[in-house]
Amino acid sequence: MPVADGSHPHLPSRALLAVIPAYNEAERIAPVIRDLLAQGLPVLVIDDGSRDTTAEVARKAGADVLRRANGGKGTAIIAGCRRAVELGYQRVLLLDGDGQHDATEAPRLIAAAKRGADLVIGMRMLDLGHQPLYRRCINRLSSILVTLAAGQRIRDSQSGFRMCDPRLLLSLPLAGHKYDLETEMCILAARAGRRVVEVPIRVIYNDKVSGVHPLYDTLRFFRAVAMSLTRCRCGHRVAPSPPFALPVALPRVSEPEPAYALASAAG
User: Which of 4, 133, 191, 201 has the fewest CB atoms nearer than 10 Å to its CB?
Assistant: First the structure.
């Protein structure tokens, strides 16, 4: 649990802040917060205009909460990054509050960042039996388009489980307000010369209905790819991030990879 000055006993002060953009997640967010706190990670929930008790539940679970009018997941991510910079944090761990990300897999992303990755993406390993055919086709196409636009292979550009320097995100010409910002983030970071790395994570299937609209958010995705390319400047580089240091005492994920890894999100 945090101490009075906002530091945590198992982490260097202001090393890493877990940021959870959330909308109407009162029924699911508390276990996510508790799993993060158990690892010594401070948690900030960005309540994006929830109409339920998300903010109250998050506070009771031990998180700090920033409430704001509903503006979409992308704007909530940016708000969380701005607050992290204001508080002096070196990195942010981004994850969803619906329980479909296993917060105990955070060490996978942390390890990749310690090895020098600038943007770490938790690549979802999906049971394709849970996906309709149209969704598999869209994932495959999105992987191809983002890989071509970014100039490096990116298989799961829409995963919400990520880790990076918040100043990197704030330095990029991001324009998306919803899920499209996550796609922009991958393309713009890669084209700015930053190292983007994917690590496998599992997906926890529950009763949550996806907030992704099959038509409108697909159109936003294609627009995000096109607009990201127009906003890229040839040879543009972002200033390097400070060294990332975390103690080796963080929980480790057992090896080998679990049997749930049936297929990547992009096929």
Answer: 4
Whether the Cβ atoms of residue 44 and residue 80 lie closer than 8 Å to each other: yes
pLDDT, block means (10 residues), the chain with 267 residues: 43 81 96 96 97 97 96 93 95 94 94 94 71 64 81 86 94 80 88 92 68 57 61 49 47 38 38
Report CA-CA distances (Å) from 226 to 74, 169, 220, 233. 17, 19, 10, 14
Residue located via tokens 């945090």: 2
Crossing angle of the two packed helices 216-231 and 180-191, in degrees rounded to 10? 20
Can you give the C-alpha Rg of the chain in angstroms? 17
Answer whether 74's CB lies under 8 Å from 177's CB.
Answer: yes
CB neighbour class for 208 (10 Å; exposed up to 12, middle 13-18, buried from 19): middle
Minimal CA–CA distance to 121: which of 156, 91, 151? Answer: 156
Contact 240, 199 (CB under 8 A): no
Omega before residue 256 within 30° of 0, cis: yes
Contact 261, 31 (CB under 8 A): no
Task: Kindly list the domain boundaries of the chain, sorted by start residue.
Answer: 16-231
Tokens at residue 46, please? Answer: 């960005």
CA distance 109 to 162: 7
Contact 159, 121 (CB under 8 A): yes
The DSSP code for 62 is: T
Q: What is the DSSP letter of 123?
A: E
What is the domain class of 16-231 according to CATH?
Answer: alpha beta
Cut 0.90: pTM above it: no
Structure-token match 């000055």, residue found: 5
CA atoms of 161 and 252, how far apart (whole Å): 17
